[in-house]
Amino acid sequence: MTASPTDPPLVRQLGLHELLTGRGWHLDGERDPGDPGFTDDPRCGWHYPATFGGRPINTIDFVTPARLQCYFAFDRRGDEVVGILPAGNKRRNGCPEHDTEEQYFPYAADGGIDLGRLGAELDALEPRARELDARAVIECLFFGPCAVSSREA
After folding, report:
1. Average pLDDT, the chain
2. Count of C-beta atoms within a 10 Å radius of residue 66
3. Do 93 and 64 contact (CB within 8 A), yes or no?
4. H/E element, 85
5. Residue 32: left if φ>0, alpha if ψ -120 to 50, beta else—which one?
6. Cα(100)–Cα(110) distance, integer angstroms
7. Which pTM was predicted?
8. How far apart are CA 139 and CA 71, in angstroms?
């Protein structure tokens, strides 16, 4: 780590890392927060291992539902932000209960991350991610919105 401990990007990265790992999240990627290129590497970020009740799921492109994730990203205007991808089907494939869409959290006026606001959002997303049934999400993807409710009817 070559950045000063008071460097704003480093403070943002380490603050978010402490918030997430304190909540049980795991680091993804080959770099640590504070390493050069951490915010630019699409493989770097964090995931919530309790997603889908903590059950492991094999990854198959375009099929496996997204687990709850957090990372640095760029919004539609090109500004660096914190991105959160709630657990569920990506690309609006399925019903509103099982779909997911990326959420952006812009930096505060002082250049930092509003960890209180982010924490409040995670308070809502983490229980949903834990309770989400991966099989139901996949069935919704393949058999239509929502295959689970139509099958049970």
Report:
1. 87
2. 18
3. no
4. strand 80-85
5. beta
6. 30
7. 0.85
8. 28
Give the Å distances, CA to CA, from 104 to 11, 39, 90, 138. 19, 14, 15, 25
pLDDT of residue 22: 97
Query: How much is the CA Rg of the chain, to the nearest whole Å?
Result: 17
Q: What is the pLDDT of residues 63-122, one digit of tens each?
A: 889 999 999 998 889 889 999 999 998 876 678 888 898 999 999 888 889 999 999 999
- Supply the pLDDT for residue 3: 47
Contacts of 129 (CB under 8 A, 6+ apart): 48, 50, 51, 52, 67, 68, 86, 87
Helix (H, G, I), strand (E, B) or coil at 60: coil
The tokens 């209180």 sit on which residue? 116
Tokens encoding 153? 């009817």
